[in-house]
Structures are given as C-alpha cells and as structure tokens.
Amino acid sequence: MTASQSSAPPTADLLARLAALLGPSGILTDSSDVAPYCTDWRALYHGRAAAVLRPAGTAELAQAVALCAEAGVAMVPQGGNTSMVGGATPDESGRDIVVCLSRMNRVRRIDPLDHTMEIEAGVTLKAAQDAARDAGLMLPLSISSEGSAQIGGVLATNAGGNNTVRYGNARELVLGLEVVLPDGSVFNGLRRLRKDNTGYALRQLFVGSEGTLGFITSAILQLQPQPRAVEAALCAVADASAALALFAAFRDQDPALIQAFEYMSGAGMDLVTRLVPGASLPLAEAAPAYVLVELATPRRNADLRAVLEDVLAGMFEAGTVSDAVIAESEGQRLALWKLREEHAEAQRRAGASVKNDVSVPVSRVPELIDRASTACAALIPGIRPAPFGHIGDGNIHFNLVQPEGMDPAEFLAQDHRIMDTVAAIVRELDGSFSAEHGVGRLKPYMMPGWRGGAELATMRRIKNAIDPRGLMNPATLFPPAG
Ligand code: MLT
Ligand code: ZN
C-alpha cells in the first residue's frame, strides 16, 4: 500500500471548487499538463497526480489547502523539481495533488542596513542571488541546480552546496518564515531579528522538513556583504588526503577567506570533459583528483592573489599539488566552476547512476573514498565510482556510474545493495547517510536503522501533531509505520 492510499481521492466537486478559487492559471488537470510534475529530475520516480495547483499568493494557497484538508486529499509541494531523492514527486496512486508556488515569485524587499531579504517561495535561487547582488549584497547559498531550484524547496530541504564551508546550510540563513500549515492556517513568523528567544524556534522545524509539515510561502534571509575580491584556482592533486592537506594550508593562512573548497575525482572530471559540450580541462595533463578552491573577501585592498599564490607555492614545494591554474578573468572563473557544476549532468549522460550523498567528519573523507571504492568494485565489477563534492565540510557525493554496456535498469535494481554497502562504511566513520539532499522517497527505508528509537518516534510525534491526517508529502521522509 502506498502512503497516499490512506488519503482520499480528489472528487470532481473538490477540483471544481479549487478551479473556482484559483482561476484558470491556478490549476492544471489535463494529463499532458500534469505529467511534467510527476517525474523527478533523475527519472527515478514516475508518479501520477490528480491536479497541479499554482496559487497566486498565500491567502489563495491557504484556502486551497483548507479545501484539500477538509476532503482528506494528500498534497505534494514541488518547487523547481530538482530533488535528487524524489522528494517532490507524487506517488503512483493518482490521489495526490501537486502544489507549485512558482507564481509567488517576488523579491519583496532587501534591507541594506539589516542585510536581509524578504522573498517568496517561487523565486529561483539564481534570481534571488542576482537580486542580492544588484543591491550590493550576497546571498551565500550556491548549488548546481540554482537556475531552477526555488527558495521554497531550497529551504524545505535545508540545501547545502558550495558555500556551506563558510556560511553554513540554508538553515543558517533563515531569520523568518511564513508557512501554510496542513489545515490551511498560516504561521506568520516573518521576523527579521537576530535575537528572538521566545520559545521553540518553530521556523527551524519547517526548514529541512521536506514538505511534510506545511508549505513554506516566504522567508526572510540573512545576506552577506558582497565580496570585493574573489580568486579561484583548479589544482591537480594525487588524492583526497592531498586535497585535505591543501585545505589545511588555506585554513592556516586565514579560514575566513575560504568561500568554497570542492573535490573532484579524475573519473568524474573525465566524464565532464568528455560528455558536456564546452567543458575542457585547463591543465596540461589529467590528474587522479582535483580541487576547486575559491577565496573571497569583502575587505578593501586585500591581496587575495598573493595569499593564493603563497599557499600554492608551498604546496607545490611539498609535492601536494602537482599543477594548478588560477582564473585570470571572471570568464575563466566561471569556466572552472562549470567543470565542477556539470558533474551531476555528466553522470546523467553517462547512463544510470547511484548517488550516495553522505557526510563524514572532514578528516575521514580519504578513508571513506578508499574503502567505499574498493567495496563497490567488489560488489559490481566494472562499476565506475566518481566521487566529488564539498570536501571542505565533509560532504562527498559518492556517486557510482553503471558499468559500460550494462542495462541501466539492471544496475538500478541493485541500488539498495550499493547504498547499503556505502552506508555501512559511512556509519563506521561516524557519518550520515544523507548530507544535503535529504531523505525524499529514496531513503525512508534507511530511517529506522539510522534514526530509529526515540529520534524517529519524536519526529513521528511532531508530524502527527502538525499533520495528524498525514496529508503532506506522504511518500517522503517517513517509512510506513509498523
Ligand atoms: C552537487 O553538489 O553537484 C550535487 O549535490 C549533485 C549530485 O550529488 O549529483
Ligand atoms: Zn552537492
């Protein structure tokens, strides 16, 4: 039985009332219009939905949610549909209603003195970054899917990404939140205060809840000053241990300068340069592994180039870095980032892949990569590990591409075997089975083993208190009870 089978199917009467409330641009019911909302970016899940709602504002959404709740109909929030774990895809029952806030896409206000931004859920992360930049500030959250990912989804999943090493995850940026709760009532916590000790920090409950507790409709985010200087370099290294030696050297110079510190395996880089048009390696030779380091500062007259060159010179001498290229222009900096950001796309083009978005203490990343590579090769001969990611915060995407020539479905049928093998090593290294992508529909089966006992029981009590009928994103996060 799927989770949504405990909910009611939407009746013609409910759909008519929703259509009357939201108007023609606020509801989709034709199967060809609804279909794109029923498959995730990785094409792992192919669900069905009775309708897609596209409300124009919080009041409209709240009324629509109240109607669905009264009818006992399940609702699946969906932002830019970029989830890596199927967390925004309806199940196969056809009973769910997908709710999209893409029409709520205004940046309402940026306060240059408070360094805050009030923003609606449907704004893409890229548009939010641009708005902050145009106001002379910076929204320090950057992920590969930022062109499509929307603020509501980014917050609901507590996205991490490339700048976590310096500014933390999405959670750390949230000062205030407005949420439509599963019964249609509105929690207005749009406060822009740094200090607000008034009981439970409810807003943090919704950040990372993966749409299981309500709809995030708008937020007040903490901004940062815009950097006055940025320097980026791509470095060739032997392995993850060398990458961490380089990380330690930059941190030793000045930890406050490290804006991003990303690791890429030679295998992953090879896929990018072979499969992504316009991506080429700006180094003389391919290397076993790479680091993309970015330094940035809002300080006036800071000589970041000198810091970068100084650290790299020491690392060349120590044999830690074998080659490096420093971006000489904004165009070159973006070209270096393209090599990193296109990893997920290159792996998609290479065939089926199994993603392990895991975290371990930073010091244990080399052991994770070594042990997991060996274990997976023993499991499926010819499997192609292509680990990459946010090594500066201990979050590695230990992704594995199918062996050449294998049937993609045959490979994907073994995803739990592969994920469990990697997870067992992650557990021994004191890590987590989901670092930044969340649990979604892919990993609820892991929750009892990793978060069982009092932790999962408490999460269920919170869920039951806020969404007693289990109508919000029912296939996500929680394994079936019992
Ligand atoms: C990234 O950092 O590019 C992603 O989170 C994507 C992935 O895991 O494939
Ligand atoms: Zn990532």
Description:
The chain has 482 residues and is α+β, with helices and mostly antiparallel strands. Among the domains are: 107-225, Uridine Diphospho-n-acetylenolpyruvylglucosamine Reductase, domain 3; 229-342, Alpha-Beta Plaits (2-Layer Sandwich), CATH 3.30.70.2190; 351-435, 2-Layer Sandwich (Alpha-Beta Plaits), CATH 3.30.70.2740. The protein has 18 helices and 21 strands. The strands form five sheets. It has a seven-stranded antiparallel beta sheet, sandwiched between helices. A five-stranded antiparallel beta sheet has the order 5-6-10-8-9. Strand 8 and strand 9 form a beta hairpin. Helix 9 (240-253) packs across helix 11. It is globular and about 75 Å long. The chain starts with 11 loop residues before the first helix and ends in a 16-residue tail after the last helix. The model has no long low-confidence stretch (mean pLDDT 97). It binds D-malate and zinc ion (ZN). Zinc ion (ZN) binds at residues 161, 389-390, 397, 436. GO terms for molecular function: catalytic activity; FAD binding. This is FAD-binding oxidoreductase. It comes from Gluconacetobacter liquefaciens. Belongs to the FAD-binding oxidoreductase/transferase type 4 family. Residues 45-226 form the FAD-binding PCMH-type domain.
Layout of helices and strands, plus pairs?
Blueprint: H1 12-22, E1 27-28, H2 31-34, E2 51-53, H3 58-71, E3 75-78, E4 97-100, E5 107-111, E6 116-120, H4 125-134, E7 137-138, H5 151-156, H6 164-167, H7 170-173, E8 174-180, E9 186-189, H8 202-206, E10 215-222, E11 224-225, E12 229-237, H9 240-253, E13 258-265, H10 266-275, E14 289-297, H11 304-317, E15 321-326, H12 330-341, H13 343-349, E16 353-354, E17 357-359, H14 365-379, E18 384-385, E19 388-390, E20 395-397, E21 400-401, H15 408-412, H16 415-428, H17 447-451, H18 454-466
Parallel strand pairs: 2-4, 3-4
Antiparallel strand pairs: 1-2, 5-6, 6-10, 7-11, 8-9, 8-10, 12-14, 12-15, 13-14, 13-19, 16-21, 17-20, 18-21, 19-20
Helix pairs in contact: 1-3, 9-11, 10-13, 14-16
The structure holds D-malate and zinc ion.
The site of D-malate has 9 residues, from helix 13.
GO molecular function: catalytic activity; FAD binding
Protein name: FAD-binding oxidoreductase
Domain FAD-binding PCMH-type: 45-226
